[in-house]
Amino acid sequence: MSLTTEIALMMAILGISILLFITDWLRVDVVALLVLLALTLTGLITPEEAFRGFSSPAVITVWAIFIVSGGLFYTGVASLLGDRMLKIAGTSARRLVGLLMTAVGLMSAVMNNVGATAVLMPATVSMARKARISVSKLLLPLAFGSLMGGMITLIGTPPNILASDALRMAGYEPFSLLDFAPVGLTVLILGVTYVVVIGMRLLPDRTPAELLAGATDSDTDLVDLYRLGERLFRARIPTGSPLIGQRLAQSGLREDFDLSVIAMERWGGTRLVPDKDTILRRGDVLLIEGMSDNVVWAGQTGRLDVQPEVGVHDKELQSEVIGIAEVLLSPHSNQAGKTLAEIQFREKYHLTVLAVLRDGRPLRTGLTDLPLRFGDTLLVQGPRHNFQILVREADYVVLGDVESAPPQRTKKAPVAIAILGVMLVPVLAGWLPITAAALLAGILMVLTGCLSMDEAYQSIEWKAVFLVAGTLPLGIAMEKTGTADFLAGLMVSALDGLGPLALLAGFYILTNLLTQFMSNAASTVLIAPIAIESALQIGSEPYALLMAVAVGASAGFLTPVAHQSKVLVKGPGG
């Protein structure tokens, strides 16, 4: 195969992979594995080179850091730090935003960005309501702060690790732990200053999370916000109804009419959350969710006496014992892609999902069989004490005015902090490479009981691991086929007359534009070999260009899909 043919094949694979990454037609980890397979089948790389990514120090470091982050999460270290910093802010919006971004930025420097965002979200929503600040003015700065903080250290975000690994593979000394700090800290300080001084005025003034949390000072009703009024009805069980004396599970309301009973009132105004074994009685008033035609049909059969529509408000969904809350899938959740029926949400937690907010649109029907996505907001209703079960579950992040149960392993928090020190000190002193230190810290987290082995596996974002391992051979293939040299020549010739700073800016902009629509890890792997070849062509060392690529890949501020931290805050922030 000629060199020209190899470059043409390589360019075709690159173009198709970028298209698939941007369009999201397939999962990013699937795309990465397809790229790996294509490179092997076309003979551009050997099978040994194709699977080298799975044993790469970069991949080992990435998943080891996820485990260390999980240890900080499960022992409550991150939560305690965030809560204390937020309490210092008081009720000043600007002070709150400044401290919030600083807190999440410092946390993101040593742990997973999405995990740091998720840890601070409940406290952020609660503080927003107490300070009477629109939660949309806090959640976007929270996500931005996590991205900025990840730029501070080598372990703060996968692009930094991958850029360092690209240097190692090219025969250069890799980046050290704090090589990114001058740039990362500058970005964080300037970013916080900009948002506090100018950005606060540009942020949207939306309040869905406050409303979902049960804010009583809002003029907008939760039912109106989620348009639940179109699906909520009252119906009394009349004399002679075949439902009298039956358990709710035997009533046939769900099976025959696709109706869900979410609340019930008995004589005397006692409000209940019925379960499948609740015995129905004459005179019970049921609050039913479903299609109006189905409710009318159930009434015509004599089962129900549908009451005249007088409006249903969120007050009727709550009482001293019954509440409503907003729930998100956490970064550690394995529930994405599963339906509520598959995870037996109602049976396990005795809570009813009233609606799901997805991409700004409330979904109210067919929820049982709806596959959940990361970023979905679940509006749940049921006994308030059951929310504590969700708070303790690693799969969910509960927002709103729900009393947070303390993490189960707070006594292990000092141990987790000590292990973090065990990881960082040897790296700073030059005693251990970051891969070995991160792996040691991850193992110590398990051995000391900061998290179990199952929780360690759950803490790892396997999609990110397979994405990195699957795309690393791209760099090998680009070097081997001369594609990196060819593309570097195009970049250098296009910017040759403008000087090295223009080339630096060019690589930053190129990487940054790619990362707005695709994984920051993938954009780093694609551009890093080209940056190294460009540096060689202009007679320079590649460190500045590689750092520009890493920072550009981490600065996913322009689109809501550029980073999972922003996907996480998108729904609650409106």
Summarize the SSE layout with pairings.
Blueprint: H1 3-23, H2 28-41, H3 47-50, H4 57-74, H5 77-89, H6 93-108, H7 113-130, H8 136-149, H9 158-169, H10 181-202, H11 208-212, H12 222-225, E1 232-236, H13 253-257, E2 260-266, E3 270-272, E4 285-289, H14 292-300, E5 305-306, E6 322-329, H15 345-349, E7 352-358, E8 361-363, E9 377-383, H16 384-392, E10 396-399, H17 413-429, H18 434-447, H19 453-459, H20 462-481, H21 483-495, H22 500-515, H23 520-537, H24 543-554, H25 564-570
Antiparallel strand pairs: 1-4, 1-5, 2-3, 2-4, 6-9, 6-10, 7-8, 7-9
Helix pairs in contact: 1-2, 1-20, 2-20, 4-9, 4-18, 4-19, 4-20, 5-6, 5-7, 6-7, 6-8, 6-10, 7-8, 7-25, 8-10, 8-25, 9-23, 9-24, 17-18, 20-23, 21-23, 22-23, 22-24, 23-24
What can you see in these coordinates?
The protein has 574 residues and is an alpha+beta fold. Helix content is 55%, strand content 9%. It contains 25 helices and ten strands. The chain has helices spanning 3-23, 28-41, 47-50, 57-74, 77-89, 93-108, 113-130, 136-149, 158-169, 181-202, 208-212, 222-225, 253-257, 292-300, 345-349, 384-392, 413-429, 434-447, 453-459, 462-481, 483-495, 500-515, 520-537, 543-554, 564-570, and strands at 232-236, 260-266, 270-272, 285-289, 305-306, 322-329, 352-358, 361-363, 377-383, 396-399. The protein has a five-stranded antiparallel β-sheet, with helices on one face. A five-stranded antiparallel β-sheet has the order 8-7-9-6-10. Helix 8 (136-149) packs antiparallel against helix 10 and helix 9 (158-169) runs parallel beside helix 23. The radius of gyration is 27 Å and the shape is elongated. It starts with a helix and ends with a helix. Mean pLDDT is 86; it is low at 208-220.
